[in-house]
Amino acid sequence: MRKIINPYRSTENGKCFGCSPDNEQGLQMDFFEDGEYVVSQWEPKTHLSGFKNVLHGGIQTTILDEIACWVVFVKCETAGVTTALNAKFKNSAFTDKGKLTVRGKLISKDRRFATIHAEILDPDGKVCSEAEVQYMIFPQEMAIKKFEYPGIEAFYE
């Protein structure tokens, strides 16, 4: 696996709820590239539970959207915005049973849209939730000017 650097950390966008290591209330996700996947090994916090130590569904949806965003950054080499997210909850994701694996991969891409499959797996590899996420993606020049996309080189050492 190859570590993906968060180039937004020292910018105005450096307090992202999903990915900023400096947002104490956030998810503090970090990312790796593993072949066709972007992956995060994420330790759930107990205050993010809903019922009986089950990770809240809204938080799961946020995590699925976040990994999809990083797929757009790294695999599409641009920025974008979520236009649709269809989540399915299959098994409980617990906040007290260890790290969850979050992963996403690019399913399709055309000039304007990218479709990403994202999933959260429990420590035993069982799928807890998954989503098909559609992003409107921007031409790289627009992503750089309007959305501070730093270029693919900024994501790696």
TrEMBL record:
Domain of life: Bacteria
Molecular function terms from GO: thiolester hydrolase activity
Record CDD domains: PaaI_thioesterase
Cited Pfam families: 4HBT (PF03061)
The Thioesterase domain, residue ranges: 53-128
InterPro entries: HotDog_dom_sf (IPR029069), PTE-AB_protein (IPR052061), Thioestr_dom (IPR006683)
Annotated protein name in UniProt: Uncharacterized protein (TIGR00369 family)
Organism for this UniProt entry: Marinifilum flexuosum
